[in-house]
Specification:
Largest sheet: 9 strands, antiparallel
Radius of gyration: 58 Å
Structural class: mainly beta
Number of helices: 6
Shape: rod-shaped
Strand content: over 45%
Length: 688
């Protein structure tokens, strides 16, 4: 502008010389003046939909020429799903212990030796031992003989047993000895513990034996008294030499079934058998344990210590060993527990099972002192298998749900967030696919949820994943309408990121099929987010700041000579949506608004109709609107002092008024063009 004014000034010089040479200049001559128009470009800007939503071509893409959706814009990104390690999460676990109990049953005491006792002739004072005389007959003379005390026990109770009695007649021939009313009584309480109902006759010098059943549930002490009625035939008229004793009695115990005793005990062997579950549902044929343990606890209610051995018929230390055995020592009336690590152990079975069979064999120790013991005394073993993490598994695995760490997919729509706001946006055909692949042959169902921070909106989906060996990854397609409703629910901005939460359930239908997997098997994959910019927009707001097209700051010095500024604003709408435009002029700091670009309009904006489209939704011709704005007075100074123009573009697709904006296609060729140019009117005189 300065150059233009200078040219005008230079042009005026020869004219002044011309006029001064022909006329005398009157003293009151007024210098002539005239108006000069000067065009000033202000703004020439083209906004594509791509410019309005995102400039990063890594995410906003378009279909190539020649494709069915040529030039249509779409957003695309993909993100790896956090991998799921199957074996780390599928564990064998059972909360119920196996408890078995066994009574000691038959009690064995140290074998009592037989005892002997001699019977003299105190039953008849007429008989002289060592003398030769006629031996008198006797008839049912009652006698008692105290048998020697047994040192192996104090007492016992029986459920069955026998006292074997052997009697040798020491009488001379031809005297016959007859015994009847035979009975056995305790020395200490005179209680009868056994008897013989018949009689026995023993010729001279001979021996006879009988067995006496001892009474059950009687307390039998360690010293018995043998009692009977004795009869002899006498020697008639024959004189005989009388021996020193009448008979010898030998007693021994046999077939004792002791239910309770106080005595010196023999060692005894008893055992229990049981089965403990290693999992409540899963059944195995072969498992290699990575980490885990079992716990064996034994409560000894017997007054005798014992050594026990746990034998596990399905658990092996390695592939070549036999069933695992675990020894354990338990003191008298004691309690002992032991925890056995099972790391690297193997569990196997010919047929699928969830249990492990076992025996506990107990060997009580013999005692040299007296112990009180009862056949109802028992021991109790408790066996439990802790949670087992597995290295490999073959069998029928229970349905197991594995939670997947959230995967965040950043939408990368910074420009959309910063520059484009809306009351409501409707998406058409958004597309999110989850690509997943397991490395094992397990059947897996994936259940997922797509959500975003700051909202309760979510999309749920579920599908099965192909087993290992599939040529391609499994693709889970999220229903498009669900996604459209989900994304359309965000106002006034789309979320910064989508969050994909999910879980994988192995063998979800609990198929009774043998599966094999290891603790390194994984489910891997990625999420692909893709949605075309085929959207309905209600009150979409796009804001951009533009430098003046041409620096007109030099005109500020001539402001007093400017009559007016006329700005022509031309908007060419090349998108299939109604556009409303308003703008404002700002100073160099971009913080102070100097002037509305449409100061004389009450609503301060221009509305432009949608572009013409064909049946396929493609723009065939833009809609163009022009507006002429005349600035006068102080507005001229504000206009000239401006440095930037802030443009606001409002977009509404069909149906926005009713709150249901209908989606339209946006392509790289769709654009809104905004052009503004000014005409500065100067009043110039020859003095200038």
């Amino acid at each position: 502008m300065r150059r233009s004014l200078t040219k005008l000034f230079v042009l005026s010089i020869p004219l002044s010389f011309f006029f001064s040479g022909c006329f005398d200049k009157p003293g009151d001559l007024v210098a002539p003046s005239w108006d000069v128009n000067m065009g000033v470009p202000v703004m020439n800007k083209t906004y594509t939909i791509k410019d309005m939503v995102e400039k990063d071509e890594n995410f906003i893409k378009w279909y190539p020429e020649g494709s069915p959706m040529a030039n249509q814009l779409y957003y695309a990104d993909n993100k790896s799903i956090n991998p799921v390690t199957i074996g780390d999460n599928v564990k064998l676990s059972n909360t119920v212990s196996s408890v078995t109990s066994q009574t000691i049953g038959e009690i064995k005491i140290q074998d009592p030796p037989s005892v002997n006792s001699d019977v003299d002739f105190s039953f008849d004072s007429n008989i002289r031992p060592g003398m030769t005389q006629i031996f008198p007959p006797e008839s049912n003379v009652a006698i008692t003989v105290t048998l020697p005390q047994q040192n192996e026990f104090n007492y016992f109770y029986l459920s069955g047993g026998t006292l074997n009695l052997t009697v040798k007649s020491e009488l001379p021939s031809p005297v016959t000895l007859t015994l009847s009313n035979i009975a056995l009584t305790n020395k200490y309480d005179d209680v009868t513990v056994g008897s013989y109902s018949g009689s026995i006759s023993i010729p001279a010098g001979q021996t006879k034996s009988i067995s006496i059943n001892l009474l059950t549930n009687k307390k039998i002490y360690n010293q018995l008294v043998f009692g009977c009625s004795i009869s002899t035939s006498g020697s008639g008229l024959q004189a005989v030499t009388v021996p020193s004793k009448a008979m010898t009695v030998n007693a021994s115990l046999s077939n004792l079934a002791i239910t309770q005793a106080s005595g010196k005990l023999k060692g005894n062997s008893i055992y229990t058998s049981g089965s403990v579950k290693i999992d409540e549902q899963s059944m195995y044929t072969n498992v290699v344990i990575d980490k885990g343990s079992l716990r064996l606890a034994i409560k000894n209610n017997i007054d005798v210590a014992f050594d026990a051995k746990l034998k596990l018929y399905n658990i092996y230390k390695d592939q070549n060993s036999g069933p695992f055995e675990l020894p354990i020592r338990v003191e008298r009336k004691g309690y002992t527990q032991i925890v056995q690590p099972l790391d690297n152990f193997i569990i196997k079975s010919n047929t699928p099972t969830s249990s492990v069979n076992y025996d506990v064999v107990v060997n009580t120790e013999a005692t040299s002192d007296y112990r009180v013991i009862s056949s109802s005394n028992s021991f109790t073993d408790t066996l439990s298998v802790g949670q087992l993490s597995i290295r490999s598994f073959t069998g029928i695995v229970k349905p197991t749900t594995i939670n997947i760490n959230p995967t965040t997919v950043t939408l990368n729509l910074k420009d959309l967030k910063d520059k484009f706001k809306f009351n409501k946006i409707n998406f058409k055909n958004p597309d999110v696919k989850i690509y997943l692949k397991p490395t094992s042959d397990l059947k897996v169902r994936f259940d997922g949820v797509i959500s975003a921070k700051g909202t309760s909106n979510k999309v749920e989906f579920s599908d099965y994943i192909s087993k290992s060996g599939s040529a391609i990854d499994s693709v889970i397609v999220i229903p498009g309408q669900k996604l459209a409703d989900f994304l359309s629910g965000f106002t006034p901005n789309l979320p910064d990121e989508l969050i994909i939460n999910g879980s994988a359930t192995v063998n979800p239908d609990f198929e009774q099929v043998n599966y094999s997997f290891t603790n390194t098997d994984q489910i891997t994959g990625y999420a692909e987010v893709k949605f075309p910019l085929n959207v309905g927009i209600d009150n979409g707001q796009f804001t951009d700041t533009t430098d003046y097209e041409k620096d007109i700051a030099d005109s500020k010095k001539e402001i007093g000579k400017i009559k007016s500024v006329v700005v022509t604003l031309e908007i060419s709408n090349g998108i299939a949506a109604k556009v409303r435009y308003d703008g404002a002029i700002y100073d160099a700091t971009r913080s102070v608004k100097l002037l509305d670009l449409l100061p004389n309009r009450p609503n301060k904006y221009i509305e432009v109709a949608p572009a013409q489209v064909n049946s396929s939704g493609e723009v065939t011709a833009p809609a163009v609107t022009k507006e002429v704005i005349e600035l006068t007075g102080s507005d001229v100074e504000k206009f000239l002092n401006g440095k930037f123009i802030l443009s606001n573009v409002n977009v509404n697709t069909s149906g926005a008024v009713t709150g249901n904006p209908q989606p339209v296609q946006f392509k790289t060729t769709d654009a809104i063009k905004i052009k503004a140019f000014g005409k500065v009117v100067y009043k110039v005189s020859s003095d200038n």
